[in-house]
Amino acid sequence: xxxxxxxxxxxxxxxxxxxxxxxxxxxxxxxxxxxxxxxxxxxxxxxxxxxxxxxxxxxxxxxxxxxxxxxxxxxxxxxxxxxxxxxxxxxxxxxxx
Length: 97
Prior knowledge:
The chain has 97 residues and is mainly alpha-helical. It contains four helices and no strands. It has helices at 2-12, 19-32, 34-58, 70-92.
């Protein structure tokens, strides 16, 4: 996550995710465990993308509008509680046959 933060900053010359949100992601990872961090970020990104696209088109927000990531991170944690083990088993357990 730290590397992605700096890579985005280097390429776009602006922060993609604030340091406080980055710390929140790390706290969630510490709480749920590092295996569950990937599904949490996946769910949070999906929920945030859907709502962000809706905000851009429906409410005519600009593409540079900052959208807080904290609520989507909380939604991702909640969805990971419900469906995280399914995602983890599909990603990390090798399938035979």
